[in-house]
Design brief:
Blueprint (H helix, E strand, L loop, with lengths): L1 H9 L1 H19 L36 H37 L1 H16 L2 H12 L3 H28 L2 H8 L4 H37 L11 H8 L8 H28 L1 H4 L11 E2 L13 E12 L2 E13 L4 E5 L6 H8 L8 E10 L2 E2 L5 H7 L4 E4 L3 H4 L6 H10 L6 H14 L5 H4 L9 H13 L5 E5 L7 H18 L2 E6 L2 H7 L2 E6 L2 E7 H6 L4 H8 L55 E2 L10
Parallel strand pairs: 1-5, 4-9, 4-10, 7-8, 8-9
Antiparallel strand pairs: 2-3, 2-5, 5-6, 10-11, 11-12
Helix pairs in contact: 1-10, 2-3, 2-10, 3-4, 3-6, 3-8, 4-6, 5-6, 6-8, 7-8, 8-9, 8-10, 9-10, 15-16, 16-18, 18-19
Bound molecules: adenosine-5'-diphosphate and magnesium ion.
Length: 622
Amino acid sequence: MTRFLALLVRNRLAAAGGIILFCVLVLTLITPFLPLQDPDVTATANRFLRPFSPGHLLGTDHLGRDLLSRLLWGTRLSLAVGIAAAVLAAVIGSAIGITAGYFGGRTDNIIMRLVDMLMAFPYILLALAIVAALGPGLMNALIAVAAVNIPFFARNIRGITVGLAGQEFVDAARLGGLGHTRIILTELLPNVIPVIVIAMSTTVGWMILETAGLSFLGLGSQPPQADLGSMLGEARSALITSPHTSVIPGLMIFIIVMSINLLGDGVRDALDPRLRSGALSRPRAATLVERQGEIPAASDDLLAIQELETQFHVGQRTYRAVNQVSLSVRPGECLGVIGESGSGKSVTALSVMGLVASPPGVITGGAVRFRGDDLVGMPYEQLRQKRGDRVAYIFQDPLSTLHPLYRTGDQLAEAIRSHHRIDKAQARARAIDLFKAVRIPNAESRIDNYPHEMSGGMRQRVGIAMALANEPDVIIADEPTTALDVTVQAQILTLLDELRRERGLAIIFITHDFGVVGQLCDRVAVMYAGRIIEEGPTGAVLAAPAHPYTKRLIACVPELGEGRRKLAAIPGLPPAVDRLPAGCAFAERCDKAQEACRTGDISLSGTAPRTVRCLFPEEAMP
Ligand code: ADP
Ligand code: MG
């Protein structure tokens, strides 16, 4: 709640709207206690007095009634009716929406068709018809405005509920034996309330306007009772001769609706966590680059990540997801990058091709060199040419990276055609070749499958085929086997290894499993809290890990025939990367840590290719 308020206050416009609205609300609440004249007493001798006349601060109207008094009482009434209508519409509309969305099927169909019928009328006509049927009066205007807005809430909330009702937590509640009412009230409602609040905050202003509109037409509040709409209506005939009688209520309506809308937008932004992190703002085509300091000189590696720093700037916080990371691969080499979840492996991989979403991602230092050219800060068009062509990615979950509505073969052909000018038939033939290359049986018929018609292993093969489509020099595989079972994982690893040898591919293989590294990689780099803490040839690291963290990670791998060995989990959690401790980030969890580990930066020691970032390594470096 305090976080919500803090966000709201930071949004200046919303805060201004909130303050103005608050003042108006306070004024209307204390209206009965202010020394005001009776708003309904007429004094025809004093007609159309200008503002600042003695005894009448804002002047008088066509019947000589005090405008200040009428304005405050009128605002009170307009606000009360508008807000009541909004609450009524929100409650009824949301109830209808949740019911329709939760039960679905025929219930949904019938309810939503009724709602559609309501929506089919232009709503000011509908409101007029309702008031005409019920008779003029403020209460009936309220009912009309509420009724007209019910479909808006019903539709919105139904859409969201349909999505929620199919999710596992609702199934779990059903399995737990909860009744429909309980599920709706305890499982669904809390999830849709933010949406209801947002919808309300953005429509209250609108409903106040609608109520004023009905009163303006003489269908809402009846004389002598004042509300903002009827004040405007009565002042219409004197618009030219005594403009203040219309300007004053008009200004008030403007102020109220404006402040409510500003506040409403602020509430929406503050309540939506995706808006908060900037994810819904349109991402840039490539990660933002704001490099300070020197750019490292070119090396002769195929792909070299040099002292790369990638951060996330969210509000005041800075998440140092990748901190001075240097890695490199030569043609035909496989480099393993290993670390716990959250250690910055994916962000490192995505930074290579500028694929980290910006905002909030920013590359703040270092370079990524492909054949000597710096990819960081390369013009977007050149970078796009290289994406998928020279450097390709394989991601963890092929179901979410393949488009569900296109045939896999077509997606593969598209990947080829985005970099090469060939016709459809050729692209298809090439796609079949690629399917064969990744050992998909019956390639000719499988190519017409949709992603959901394939198993996880087959889908990942399609993912690999896509990465191979343009014969890249480097493949970055981000946990490609984590979503697969062990036998399929073994097949995929064998496949990658064969492809590497056949085509001289360089592979950067990201994983959290030392078993996989041992099977596939020539060299391995261990990451922790955004930094490389140990690097070396796989055999050497496995045989004699130097960093205590690496040693613990290796101890986590079960080995056949060693059933008695205790599988040690590493106690504690990695530090959050927006609050990194001074010194070694692993010190908290390390049983060898000493005072020196908690102060100052610890640099890599040893000579390439065998290095470690530790003051008290398990093994002395050569
Ligand atoms: P992994 O090693 O599991 O692939 P990631 O590279 O995905 O880890 O994440 C590295 C760190 O970056 C994590 O600690 C995470 O908290 C942080 N991070 C990732 N995306 C964002 C983001 N959009 N905003 C803030 N922090 C992020
Ligand atoms: Mg990851």
